[in-house]
């Protein structure tokens, strides 16, 4: 989950919790207020009925019922009962409604003086009334239909407001976070395009002195330091390679002169040839290091042009024959009638020749016979696949994992002179061409290198 979504979700969840808590408090407060207000109305009605019945001598039950029938503030579904101290019913209003009661309720009323409860949809109030040392018990019930309707409307309003507010906050929060962190997206896109070949790039700094801009400045400083370190490393590699090439060339020249002297014994000639091989190995190592340094320095893609891959392979084959005149190349193109085969790729011809020259050279050194087979085909995605195979001892799993690392030499190369940089150099060149190279062995004693050029 991205940082933007995480921030938006956290803010929205926090708002939802706070808004839900506020809505609950509002609903609970209004519900308590409605209940208490209706209780007061019931109490006023009960006391008024008791006073008229007990204290006013001129009013009897019939007159009281008449007053109750014509009262302006009559409650919905109202029922009033008045009992004397012997729990005998003295008065009952004319309503058809009923009140569930028993003697224990009246006894509880004498002890607690009052009670208030809800039965189904009606509220019931009990009051103990004392007049001239005589006990009276009043039970009154009614339904607060208007208050309950208001409470239901409030609940509906709060629910709709909660849902609408939550959705609005979720979308608006994500929108504002998206705008707020847009510089971070720009920063991410810019650093994604940075590679070892583009360390001189400086990220664009904003006008605001916020955390993202401070991060951009710090990243630019870090890039400058890395570029300086890389440049120093490249210069050292290049200078050291140039300095070493000169004495190596002199050593090779002197050894060649010594080998031409017929007065040397066979043992001396063998030793000189062995030394010459080691000098050539060291020279190849220096040349490979120098080329790696050069590739790192150059923006290779600026030199790209259309190159026919078959011409590259044949040119590498000629160089391989100079290395070993017995080298034999088998070349095959798999033609698919449904796909128009294109042998052209975008790249630098001289660099691609180095790739295949290294593969052919390995075939000369590590194969049972100095030979290689090249198969070219193109798939429906217009990817050009080149399979270079040779017969020889296959690599174990440990060597496979480290095959393209610098100075890597497998167990099958212990008796062969080499630098261990050929495949590393080939992979580096193919990376610059947005191509891939992989090793596989599908059959015993068959080594295959699969090169894929994207469309």
From TrEMBL:
A GO molecular function held by the record: phosphorelay sensor kinase activity
EC id: 2.7.13.3
Tagged with keyword Iron-sulfur: no
CDD domains listed in its UniProt record: HAMP, HisKA
Keywords: Kinase, Membrane, Phosphoprotein, Transferase, Transmembrane, Transmembrane helix, Two-component regulatory system
Substrates-to-products reaction catalysed: ATP + protein L-histidine = ADP + protein N-phospho-L-histidine
Chain segments annotated as transmembrane: 7-30, 153-177
Protein known as: histidine kinase
């Amino acid at each position: 989950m991205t940082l933007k979504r995480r921030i938006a979700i956290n803010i929205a969840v926090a708002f939802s919790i706070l808004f839900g808590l506020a809505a609950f408090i509002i609903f609970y407060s209004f519900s308590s207020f409605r209940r208490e207000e209706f209780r007061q109305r019931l109490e006023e009605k009960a006391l008024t009925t008791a006073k008229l019945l007990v204290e006013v001598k001129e009013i009897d039950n019939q007159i009281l019922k008449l007053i109750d029938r014509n009262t302006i503030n009559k409650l919905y579904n109202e029922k009033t009962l008045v009992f004397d101290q012997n729990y005998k019913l003295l008065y009952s209003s004319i309503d058809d409604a009923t009140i569930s009661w028993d003697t224990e309720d009246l006894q509880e009323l004498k002890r607690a003086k009052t009670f208030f409860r809800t039965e189904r949809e009606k509220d019931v109030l009990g009051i103990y009334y004392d007049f001239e040392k005589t006990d009276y018990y009043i039970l009154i019930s009614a339904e607060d239909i208007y208050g309950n309707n208001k409470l239901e409307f409030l609940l509906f309003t709060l629910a709709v407001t909660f849902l609408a507010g939550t959705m609005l906050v979720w979308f608006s929060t994500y929108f504002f976070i998206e705008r707020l962190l847009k510089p971070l997206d720009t920063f991410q896109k810019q650093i994604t395009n940075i590679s070892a070949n583009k360390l001189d790039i400086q990220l664009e700094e904003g006008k605001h002195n916020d955390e993202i801009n401070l991060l951009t400045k710090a990243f630019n400083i870090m890039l400058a330091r890395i570029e300086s370190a890389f440049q120093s490393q490249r210069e050292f590699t290049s200078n050291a390679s140039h300095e070493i090439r000169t004495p190596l060339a002199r050593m090779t020249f002197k050894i060649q002169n010594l080998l031409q002297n017929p007065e040397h014994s066979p043992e001396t000639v063998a030793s000189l040839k062995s030394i010459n091989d080691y000098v050539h190995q060291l020279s190849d190592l220096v040349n490979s290091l120098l080329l790696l340094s050069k590739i790192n320095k150059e923006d290779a893609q600026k030199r790209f042009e259309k190159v026919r891959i078959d011409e590259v392979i044949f040119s590498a084959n000629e160089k391989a024959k100079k290395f070993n005149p017995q080298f034999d190349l088998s070349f095959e193109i798999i033609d698919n009638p449904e796909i128009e085969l294109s042998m052209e790729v975008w790249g630098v011809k001289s660099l691609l020749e180095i790739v295949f020259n290294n593969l052919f050279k390995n075939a000369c050194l590590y194969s049972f016979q100095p030979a290689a087979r090249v198969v070219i085909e193109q798939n429906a995605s217009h990817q050009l696949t080149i399979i270079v195979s040779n017969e020889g001892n296959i690599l174990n799993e440990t060597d496979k994992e480290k095959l393209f690392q610098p100075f890597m030499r497998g167990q099958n190369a212990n008796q062969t002179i080499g630098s261990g940089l050929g495949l590393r150099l080939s992979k580096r060149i193919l990376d610059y061409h947005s191509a891939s190279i992989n090793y596989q062995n599908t059959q015993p004693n068959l080594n295959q290198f699969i090169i894929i050029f994207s469309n």
